[in-house]
Design brief:
By secondary structure, the chain is of the alpha/beta class. About 35% of the residues lie in helices and about 15% in strands. The chain has helices spanning about 15-25, 35, 40-45, 80-95, 115-125, 145-150, 170, 175-195, 215-230, 255-270, 290-295; strands at about 30, 50-55, 95-100, 130-135, 155-160, 205-210, 235-240, 270-275. The chain has an eight-stranded mixed beta sheet, with helices on both faces. Strand 3, helix 5 and strand 4 (about 130-135) form a beta-alpha-beta unit. Helix 4 (about 80-95) packs parallel to helix 5 (about 115-125), helix 5 (about 115-125) packs parallel to helix 6 (about 145-150) and helix 9 packs parallel to helix 10 (about 255-270). The model has no long low-confidence stretch (mean pLDDT about 85).
């Protein structure tokens, strides 16, 4: 594996705080994407008492060559107790903002949409003031399943674009660039055209990895495509190779380039652009609470 530049080196975490979070996760038998996907920010986030919960896993029905989550063609059945255990973890950790993501469950008719809904309901029951972000898979283009999730009114719906169209076959072979845009477009269209009296209209979010061989022009085109479907929030981060068996890093992008993309995204009209080498989909996700105050969206009941 290529030696990382200085700007990608992270400080060793204070393991006492990390251990406290891990103790809650182990006690409630929960998975986090922080651990399963070998996130470089695990120390910082665990020290802050935050985590991105990984439901319906830990194994995934897809084997994307960039991802460190285990592949399993026929994963275990869904655990009906998972939503309550997740909600209890949110309560114990006193989270103001929670991110709930999942592995791909292409074996399920609804892609796991019903499990997302149950997790949202359980968190709202125990922690009604906690804002909820869901980072969902593409659901194989099952738009009825997407509607099921949207009816639960998460505060943020995140679906990652991951890379530029030219690299999809190599990086995300079971994904589809147009399907990703369609998912975000349908979410934004629903927000603009339908009423929602459960919670404020959902903010949309997506993320891109860089350093896989894409060009600056291709990244900018993806950013423009995302704004064309009214995506609100964008994250851009450096791809890091989890192990020798995963896709190799083509290039380590300098931090100044991330600043350039951030400025371009703000010019395009994104409400928030988080762009840095260590940025991940859920990195500093709690900052969306401030964004929601700056750009409030009212329900039709108001």
């Amino acid at each position: 594996m290529t030696v990382k530049p200085d700007w990608l080196r992270v400080k060793a975490p204070q393991w006492e705080r990390v251990g406290n979070v891990k103790e809650v996760l182990r006690d409630l038998a929960l998975n986090t994407v922080c651990e399963e996907a070998s996130c470089p920010n695990i120390g910082e986030c665990f020290q802050a008492g935050t985590a991105t919960f990984l439901i319906m896993g830990p194994a995934c029905t897809r084997a994307c060559p960039y991802c460190d989550i285990d592949f399993e063609k026929k994963p275990k059945p869904l655990d009906p107790t998972e939503p309550e255990r997740l909600a209890e973890a949110v309560r114990r950790m006193k989270l103001n903002h929670v991110v709930i993501t999942s592995v791909n469950r292409d074996d399920l008719p609804d892609g796991g949409a019903s499990q997302f809904v149950q997790c949202i309901a359980a968190v709202r029951n125990l922690s009604p003031h906690t804002t909820i972000e869901v980072l969902i898979p593409d659901l194989c283009g099952n738009w009825n399943a997407l509607e099921i999730i949207l009816q639960a009114a998460p505060d943020v719906l995140n679906h990652n674009t991951e890379t530029v169209p030219r690299l999809y076959r190599r990086v995300r072979p079971q994904g589809n660039y147009d399907r990703t845009l369609e998912l975000l477009k349908r979410t934004s269209f629903r927000r603009a055209s339908l009423t929602c009296q459960i919670a404020p209209w959902t903010y949309t979010k997506s993320g891109i990895m860089v350093g896989l061989g894409e060009s600056d022009a291709e990244i900018r085109q993806v950013m423009q495509d995302l704004r064309a479907v009214d995506c609100d929030i964008l994250t851009i981060g450096q791809y890091l190779q989890p192990s020798q068996k995963h896709l190799q890093v083509n290039e380590f992008i300098h931090p100044e380039q991330f600043d350039t993309w951030k400025a371009f995204g703000e010019e395009l009209g994104f409400l928030q652009v988080v762009s840095s080498p260590l940025t991940r989909s859920s990195y500093h996700a709690e900052q969306v609470r401030e964004l929601m105050k700056c750009y409030p969206r009212k329900s039709s009941a108001e």
